[in-house]
Amino acid sequence: MARVRVRSAVLIAIAGVAIPVSAGASGIHVGTTVNVSADRFADNEESFGMNPSGTWLAGAWNDFDFNDGCGFSFSTDGGKSFAPRSFVPGFTAFTNDPSIPGTGTFAVAGDPAVEFNPKFNTFDVVCQAFGATGGAINLLATTFDPIKADPVANENASYVGARNPWTHPVAIATGTSNGTQKGSTGHFPDHEFLVIDTGNGAGHHFGRAFVTWAEFNGNFRSSINLAFSDDNGQTWSGPIGVSDAGHKFDQDARTTIGPDGTVYVSFDSGPNATSFGKEVDIAASHDGGQTFGPTVPMAQLINPVPGLLPNSQYRVFSDVWSSASSSGIVTAVFNDQRNGHSNIYAVHNLAPGDLTRWSSPVGVKTSAKEEFFPWVETSPSGNRLDLTFYDRSNDPANTKNWVDYASSTDNGATWTVTTATRVGADLDMFQACLAFVQPSNCGDFFIGDYIALVSTETAVHLFYTWNGPAAQDVFETNLRF
Length: 481
Description:
CATH topology of the domain at 242-428: Neuraminidase
Oligomer: single chain
CATH class of the domain at 242-428: Mainly Beta
Shape: globular
Distance between the termini: 36 Å
Number of strands: 32
Largest sheet: 5 strands, antiparallel
Mean pLDDT: 91
Helix content: under 10%
C-alpha cells in the first residue's frame, strides 16, 4: 500500500530543467529533464507506459492533492512536453477543488501501474482504491485514449472535453479491511503490477493484460495472485494463485513475458510475518497465466533492507524486478545489504526455460553507499536490459540521491552505468502531506516504493520522484544512444 491516510473531508510543456546534452558511458547521451507534475503538493511512486513508436507516453503517480488518488499526465511528442497534470477519474470521491465532487466512491487511491496496450491502442491504468463504506478495497482498472483527450481541459476534468478518453473503472480484485496497513483483518490486495503481452507468436496472447498483487490475509500472510483480461479491461479472469503453498509471506510481484509466451512472476518471499524477506523467487505459467508451477528461488537475500537506510527517514525495503530477453533468459535485479550497504545485484537463469539453475549475484555498481528502487525492462528487441535506480555513490555523506541508468547486453552479467541527474537530492526535503487536510510538516516521510522507465531501441525515459520548487514532483529524464 502506498500510503495510509484519513480524510476529513494543444499540449503545454511543463517548465523543466534543461540538462545540456552530454555523452555518458559507451555513447549514451543524457538529454533534457522535465518536471512532469509541477505541483504544490506531493507526487511520488510513478508508473509510465509508452507506445511502440515512442511518441505517446502516459503515466500515473500517488497524488497528494485533494483528489487523493492517482495523478496523471501524458505526452504525444515523445516526452518533449507533457499535458498539465490532472488525475485519473472514477477512483476517489474528490477532485482537486473541495467544492467539486469526484466521480468515484473511494477516499484514497494509489499504487499506480500504467502500460500501453497495442491491441487496443490505449493505455491501461490500474490503481488500488480504499476507504469506502464497509472497509472495501479494490484494485481498479481503466483505460486512457490520448486521441480522445483534451490536454487543455480544466484540471478537474481529467482531460475530458468533447470526448471522454476514459473507460469506466472495473474491479480486478475486491477485499475488505479495517484500513490497517498490510491487512491485519480482512483481505487486502496490495502492491499491484501490470504488464501487457505484446507478442504475436505461438504461446502468446496478444493484448492480454496481466495484473499481479499480494493478497494480505491477516497476520501479515500474503500470497501472490494474478488476474488477466483479453477485452481491454472490461472483464477479468482470476484471482489465480501464483505462489505455492510453501510460500505464504510474499509481496512485490512483477510479471514478464518470455519470447515463447511463458508468463514469469518474480517476488520476494519471507519465512514469517516479521521478516523482511529471505529470498527472491519466481514462478512460471505455460498456459497464459491460467496455472503456475512451483515457486523457485533465484537468489538469497543475505541482509535485506529492513525499512530504513542510513541518513534518511523515508522507507526503503529490499525489492526485486525481473525481465525476460529475446533468448528466453530471465534476469532479476534486487537490492540487498550483503556488503553492508543497500546495493543492486543481478542474477539470471543459466538456460532458457530452466528455473532451477541461476547465476551468482553480480553487483551492478558496487558501492560503499546506498542504492535502491531498481526497475528493469527489456528493450523492444529483447536484446538490451534497461535498469534505473537511486544511487548515493556521489555523496560522501551518503545522504543525497542521484538517478542512474544501467544497460546490459549479456543478461546482467556486466553493466554500463550512466548518471542521469546532474546533482543529487535529499529526498527528505519535502514530506508527503495531503492537501488542505494535513499541514506541510505532517511527519510523513514517504517517496513511494518504486520509480520507472520505458524505452525504445534508441531512447530511454526515466521517471522518478525528485524535489520540485514546492513539493515532491514527478520528473522525466531522457537518454539516447
